[in-house]
């Protein structure tokens, strides 16, 4: 069983088995045949041997008998006893041969032969021979002859004959044996051929077996596989009990077929589904094709629109966008010319139009056809005949179609209007609605630009505001990185780069950049503290640092800003408090100075008064005390006046009554007044000129020179020369006041004109003062349009140099030596309010003009026949006259003789525009300061001045 | 006769104090600034030194320091006159070593009273 399994499980083993069987079968057959052959040969040889032996024996017997006969004959004939003995001796041998023959007797004939021989032997040796011998011996020769002639000789002859016959029978037997052998051998050959045939049959059987067991199933498999591949069903006819490879293969194949079939079923199901879907898709495709068709037409529109949008959205420059809009729209519409104009702004762009045409279009926009757009807010077209210019060389009547298109904002407001002209083709309603849609796009684009401009301007404004802020501002994020700074911060830290250079600097970078420029080493610690307190929303803290180079005092505070949800930003503000700090310093110094300065005279006044009240004093002592009290009280008054002046200056309440004043007498008087206060000093006034007209407040200018001269005295306690020089050039008047006093240290000079500033020096400290004098001087000089500076050599003295703008009168340029306050301008005032006319006349006279006034235009014209005035002051509402101001102005401007005369309108009517449009030089609305009138007239006349060298102070 | 040094840069005030004191037979040396006062102090011993606070060359405070530092003869009583009336300034002056303080403007008679009191005490 195991063995059969062993073969059943493997095809190769089966094949080997079959081939082995074949081999064994062949081997066995061959062996059998060989054995048969051998056997046949052997039998033949044995038979032959026996026959040969038999023949030999018989021949021997025959020969022996012949010899015996011969011997007996000799014996009988010759009576030789020997021969008879030899013959008798041969009996034994013959007997042995016969028994040998008996031994070999097999067949009946053999036996009969044997018996015949034995009988003969017995007869011959038993009867005949002894009878003969006895007869012979007895000499009975007759008897011998009888014996010889009778039966005995016949018998012997027969015997010899028989023996001869037996011998030849044996020869025949031998020959017969050879024939039999060859016959057997040919039989054997036949058997061999039969065996081979059998063997071949067996081999064929084996092959058939193999084919049946292996080939057939394989062919089945291939056929089945082909069937399956072709999609037909196939069954494998293999014994399911087979356990060899084919069995396994069949099982596997079966499984494969099953799985394929299963899958196929699945696929078939899917396929069906797909077919269903495909059908559906087909339906959809049809639908889509229909949609596509409609989309295509949309697409064309859209692509045109896209082109437009693309071109207008590629820039944020309004001018470019408008240009692009008008060009693209023309292209899109196929228009030959067109324009777009913003409604609220002057911006426009045109294509194919002349500037003249554009200007005309814009001018009449409010009243032209365009107005319809504002009302209907819808596009419309206009068909008209081509104008000659448009026709070119065409003879026939051609038409031009104008398209008026509003650009509506999202709020349906007309943002801009567009007009396009197209020759030859009208616009369809569909076209119009498409263009309106495009106009919407343009509106969006314009809105974007506006928004961008707004954002940009807001951004710029913000940065400008930041930059304009006097504090240095720095915005940092949570990590301390700089996000934004303003210009001022840049200036504080002398950064030459742009403010953008700060952006992105890390805490370490910027803080060390700052720390390097700051005195002391507390900066970083203070900075951190301030930021921390800001981040923790504690009370505002600040600290102060001092710049190394500029010695600026900067106060820093921090504020946190919540930007968005939770991003924490910190704003650091660097405020330059140098001024405040200095002012503070000075103020506190001032407090002590003022208290000192005020208390000292007060102490004197109170002290001496007390002595006067409580003591018996001699009259001269009383006088001395009273004089002292008076002086000290005066000093107090001056001090208080100074304080008040400064206070007024600070609050801007100081008023100046400016006139044209001559400095020369002012300086002269000031020197005279100061001379009496000192005996140590010598005054000198050096001047080439004796008149220097400037525009300023006389009493204030007196104060300037009084202060400067008294300072000269005060700060040259040891006396010396005080020299005043006056000179002028075409533009300015120069005054120098020089002393030989203590001089001013160089480092004090820049601060000299600051209020409350006192030179901090022992020499100066001896000299009392509030630190206000020079501040007041500078203020007045500046208010008079002049400037002041100081040069000094410490220990040698100082020079204060003043410069005022010079007012040159025509008189002065005409006659260098002439001294007159007249400006030599003739002015006519036309004013029906006589009191006002008088006031104006006085004012103008005061300013050095020649003035005449008239209550009506006609009177004025009468006068002007003889003398053309340099300027006319004109009231508009003239009740007594048939001509009002407007008609007088028109008359004047229409007259060649008068039209160059500047007209200064002075009226209660606020119609400036009309006035200026009619040619007024200035238009003053009553009430106004009369000095203003002289000022503007002076300004105009001098700047129109024929000499052109007049400087008029503001 | 008591000897007093008066250091005051304002001539009128010097006159006021000197007149008042001389009427009472004090001997008064007048100094117009810090340097002059120091020169006097180096030469003479005074029963009392009257110092103005604000003076050229050396201020009253600087002079006190010099007196305390022993640059002068002996230890005189010091009366400081000052227009600085604020409490902290007075305190500073007293801390610096002035014995007495009188605010400007002052009553010459009260000053006299005070001086007599100081001088007699000594």
Automatic annotation (TrEMBL), chain A:
<dbReference type="InterPro" id="IPR036890">
    <property type="entry name" value="HATPase_C_sf"/>
</dbReference>
<keyword id="KW-0547">Nucleotide-binding</keyword>
<keyword id="KW-0812">Transmembrane</keyword>
<keyword id="KW-0067">ATP-binding</keyword>
<dbReference type="InterPro" id="IPR003018">
    <property type="entry name" value="GAF"/>
</dbReference>
<feature type="domain" description="HAMP">
    <location>
        <begin position="212"/>
        <end position="265"/>
    </location>
</feature>
<dbReference type="InterPro" id="IPR001789">
    <property type="entry name" value="Sig_transdc_resp-reg_receiver"/>
</dbReference>
<feature type="transmembrane region" description="Helical">
    <location>
        <begin position="190"/>
        <end position="211"/>
    </location>
</feature>
<feature type="modified residue" description="4-aspartylphosphate">
    <location>
        <position position="875"/>
    </location>
</feature>
<keyword id="KW-0472">Membrane</keyword>
<dbReference type="Pfam" id="PF00072">
    <property type="entry name" value="Response_reg"/>
</dbReference>
<dbReference type="Pfam" id="PF00512">
    <property type="entry name" value="HisKA"/>
</dbReference>
<dbReference type="InterPro" id="IPR004358">
    <property type="entry name" value="Sig_transdc_His_kin-like_C"/>
</dbReference>
<dbReference type="Pfam" id="PF00672">
    <property type="entry name" value="HAMP"/>
</dbReference>
<feature type="domain" description="Histidine kinase">
    <location>
        <begin position="593"/>
        <end position="808"/>
    </location>
</feature>
<dbReference type="InterPro" id="IPR005467">
    <property type="entry name" value="His_kinase_dom"/>
</dbReference>
<dbReference type="Pfam" id="PF02518">
    <property type="entry name" value="HATPase_c"/>
</dbReference>
<feature type="transmembrane region" description="Helical">
    <location>
        <begin position="15"/>
        <end position="36"/>
    </location>
</feature>
<keyword id="KW-0418">Kinase</keyword>
<dbReference type="InterPro" id="IPR003660">
    <property type="entry name" value="HAMP_dom"/>
</dbReference>
<dbReference type="InterPro" id="IPR035965">
    <property type="entry name" value="PAS-like_dom_sf"/>
</dbReference>
<keyword id="KW-1003">Cell membrane</keyword>
UniProtKB/TrEMBL annotation, chain B:
<feature type="modified residue" description="4-aspartylphosphate">
    <location>
        <position position="52"/>
    </location>
</feature>
<dbReference type="Pfam" id="PF00072">
    <property type="entry name" value="Response_reg"/>
</dbReference>
<dbReference type="InterPro" id="IPR011006">
    <property type="entry name" value="CheY-like_superfamily"/>
</dbReference>
<dbReference type="InterPro" id="IPR050595">
    <property type="entry name" value="Bact_response_regulator"/>
</dbReference>
<dbReference type="InterPro" id="IPR001789">
    <property type="entry name" value="Sig_transdc_resp-reg_receiver"/>
</dbReference>
<protein>
    <submittedName>
        <fullName>CheY-like chemotaxis protein</fullName>
    </submittedName>
</protein>
<feature type="domain" description="Response regulatory">
    <location>
        <begin position="3"/>
        <end position="119"/>
    </location>
</feature>
<keyword id="KW-0597">Phosphoprotein</keyword>
């Amino acid at each position: 069983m195991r063995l059969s399994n062993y073969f059943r499980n493997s095809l190769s083993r089966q094949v080997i088995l079959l081939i082995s069987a074949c081999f064994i079968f062949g081997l066995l057959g061959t062996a059998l045949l060989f054995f048969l052959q051998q056997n046949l040969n052997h039998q033949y040889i044995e038979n032959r041997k026996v026959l040969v032996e038999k023949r030999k024996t018989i021949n021997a017997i025959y020969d022996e008998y012949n010899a015996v006969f011969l011997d007996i004959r000799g014996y009988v004939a010759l009576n030789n006893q020997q021969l008879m003995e030899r013959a008798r001796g041969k009996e034994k041998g013959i007997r042995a041969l016969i028994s040998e023959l008996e031994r070999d007797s097999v067949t009946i004939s053999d036996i009969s032969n044997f018996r015949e021989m034995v009988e003969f032997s017995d007869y011959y040796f038993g009867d005949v021979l002894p009878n003969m011998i006895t007869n012979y011996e007895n000499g009975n020769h007759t008897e011998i002859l009888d014996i010889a002639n009778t039966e005995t000789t016949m018998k012997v002859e027969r015997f010899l004959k028989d023996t001869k016959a037996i011998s030849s029978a044996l020869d025949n037997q031998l020959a017969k044996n050879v024939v039999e052998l060859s016959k057997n051998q040919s039989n054997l050959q036949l058997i061999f051929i039969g065996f081979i045939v059998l063997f071949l049959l067996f081999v064929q059987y084996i092959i058939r077996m193999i084919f049946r067991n292996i080939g057939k199933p394989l062919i089945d498999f291939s056929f089945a596989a082909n069937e399956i591949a072709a999609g037909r069903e196939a069954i494998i006819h293999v014994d399911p009990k087979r356990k060899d490879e084919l069995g396994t293969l069949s099982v596997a194949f079966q499984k494969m077929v099953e799985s394929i079939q299963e899958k196929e079923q699945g696929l078939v199901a899917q396929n069906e589904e797909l077919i269903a879907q495909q059908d559906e898709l087909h339906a959809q495709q049809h639908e889509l094709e229909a949609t596509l068709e409609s989309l295509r037409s949309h697409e064309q529109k859209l692509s045109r629109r896209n082109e437009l949008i693309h071109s207008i959205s590629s820039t944020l420059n309004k001018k470019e966008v408008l240009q692009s809009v008008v060009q693209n729209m023309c292209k899109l519409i196929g228009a030959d010319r067109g324009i777009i104009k913003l409604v609220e702004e002057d911006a426009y762009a045109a294509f194919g139009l002349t500037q003249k045409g554009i200007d005309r279009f814009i001018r009449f926009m409010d009243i032209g056809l365009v107005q319809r757009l504002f009302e209907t807010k819808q596009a419309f077209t206009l068909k008209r005949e081509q104008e000659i210019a448009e026709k070119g060389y065409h003879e026939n009547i051609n038409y031009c179609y104008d398209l008026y298109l509003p650009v509506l904002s999202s709020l349906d407001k007309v943002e801009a209007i567009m007009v396009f002209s197209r020759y030859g083709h009208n616009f369809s309603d569909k076209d119009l609605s498409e263009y309106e849609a495009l106009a919407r796009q343009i509106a969006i684009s314009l809105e974007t630009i506006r928004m961008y401009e707004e954002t940009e301007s807001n951004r710029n404004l913000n940065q400008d505001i930041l930059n304009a802020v006097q504090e240095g501002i720095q915005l940092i994020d949570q990590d301390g990185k700089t996000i934004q700074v303003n210009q001022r911060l840049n200036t504080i830290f002398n950064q030459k780069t742009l403010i953008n250079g700060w952006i992105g600097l890390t805490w370490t970078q910027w803080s060390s950049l700052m720390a390097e420029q700051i005195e002391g080493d507390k900066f970083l610690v203070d900075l951190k503290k301030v930021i921390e307190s800001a981040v923790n929303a504690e009370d505002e803290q600040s600290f102060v640092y001092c710049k190394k180079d500029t010695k600026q005092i900067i106060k820093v505070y921090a504020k946190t800003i919540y930007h968005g949800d939770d991003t924490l930003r910190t704003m650091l503000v660097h405020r330059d408090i140098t001024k405040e700090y200095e002012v503070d310093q000075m103020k506190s110094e001032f407090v002590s100075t003022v208290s000192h300065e005020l208390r000292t005279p007060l102490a004197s006044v109170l002290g001496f008064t007390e002595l006067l009240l409580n003591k018996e004093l001699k009259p001269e002592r009383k006088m001395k005390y009273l004089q002292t009290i008076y002086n000290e009280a005066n000093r107090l008054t001056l001090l208080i006046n100074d304080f008040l002046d400064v206070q007024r200056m600070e609050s801007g309440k100081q008023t100046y009554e400016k006139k044209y004043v001559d400095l020369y007498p002012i300086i002269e008087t000031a020197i005279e007044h100061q001379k009496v206060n000192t005996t140590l000093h010598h005054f000198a006034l050096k001047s080439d000129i004796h008149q220097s007209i400037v525009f300023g407040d006389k009493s204030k200018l007196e104060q300037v020179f009084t202060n400067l001269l008294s300072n000269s005295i005060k700060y040259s306690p040891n006396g010396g020369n005080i020299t005043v020089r006056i000179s002028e050039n075409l533009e300015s008047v120069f005054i120098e006041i020089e002393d030989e006093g203590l001089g001013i240290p160089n480092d004090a000079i820049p601060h000299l004109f600051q209020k409350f500033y006192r030179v901090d020096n022992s020499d100066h400290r001896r000299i009392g003062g509030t630190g206000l004098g020079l501040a007041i001087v500078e203020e007045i000089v500046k208010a008079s349009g002049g400037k002041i500076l100081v040069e000094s050599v410490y220990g040698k003295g100082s020079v204060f140099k003043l410069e005022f703008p010079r007012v040159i009168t025509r008189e002065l340029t005409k006659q260098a030596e002439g001294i007159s306050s007249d400006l030599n301008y003739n002015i006519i005032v036309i004013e029906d309010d006589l009191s006002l006319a008088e006031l104006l006349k006085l004012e103008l006279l005061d300013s050095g003009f020649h003035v005449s006034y008239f209550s009506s235009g006609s009177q004025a014209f009468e006068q002007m026949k003889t003398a053309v005035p340099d300027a006319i002051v004109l009231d508009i509402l003239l009740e007594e006259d048939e001509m009002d101001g407007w008609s007088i102005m028109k008359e004047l401007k229409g007259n060649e003789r008068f039209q160059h005369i500047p007209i200064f309108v002075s009226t209660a009517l606020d119609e400036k525009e009309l006035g200026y449009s009619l040619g007024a030089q200035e238009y003053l609305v009553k009430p106004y300061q009369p000095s203003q009138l002289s000022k503007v007239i002076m300004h105009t006349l001098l700047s129109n001045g024929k000499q052109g060298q007049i400087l008029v102070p503001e | 006769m008591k000897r007093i040094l008066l250091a005051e840069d304002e001539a009128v005030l010097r006159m006021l104090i000197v007149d008042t004191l001389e009427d009472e037979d004090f001997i008064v040396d007048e100094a117009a600034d810090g340097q002059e006062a120091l020169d006097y102090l180096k030469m003479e011993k005074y029963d009392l030194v009257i110092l103005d606070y604000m003076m050229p060359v050396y201020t009253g405070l600087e002079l006190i320091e010099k007196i305390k530092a022993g640059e002068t003869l002996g230890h005189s009583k010091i009366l400081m006159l000052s227009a600085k009336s604020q409490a902290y300034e007075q305190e500073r002056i007293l801390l610096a070593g002035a014995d007495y303080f009188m605010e400007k403007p002052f009553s010459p008679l009260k000053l006299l009273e005070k001086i007599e009191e100081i001088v007699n005490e000594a």
